Amino acid sequence: GGTVTFTGAIVEPACTTMTNSQHAAVQCSHNGVDKVRQVRFNKQQQTLPFQLGNVSVQSSGHIKAVEVIYR
Questions:
Q1: How far is CA 41 from CA 2, 3, 29, 61, in A?
Q2: pTM of the entire structure?
Q3: For 49, phi and psi rounded to 5 degrees?
Q4: Cα 30 from Cα 2, distance rounded (Å)
């Protein structure tokens, strides 16, 4: 067991993801500016817009699993 303590505030919205059968896109906001990045379906981690973290997409048929890791 243990305790995790968080101090601070979340001041930006989470990145959003959009997928279809051909591609995925991630949209992130930072300081009021939106950026969209196309993401490949290859399981490789790719950098989020504004270098906010990493994203990877696994594709298996019609199912797309998107993993977002924030810094």
A1: 37, 37, 23, 11
A2: 0.76
A3: -55, 150
A4: 33
Question: From the centroid of its chain, how far is CA 42?
Answer: 15
- Residue owning tokens 């196309």: 38
What is the rounded distance in angstroms from the CA atom of residue 63 to the CA atom of residue 9?
34
Tokens (6 digits) for 48: 């989020």
Report the alpha-carbon distance of residue 8 to residue 24 in Å, rounded.
31
**What are the structure tokens assigned to 58, written together?**
């696994």
pLDDT tens for residues 29-68?
999 999 999 998 887 899 999 999 999 998 888 888 889 9
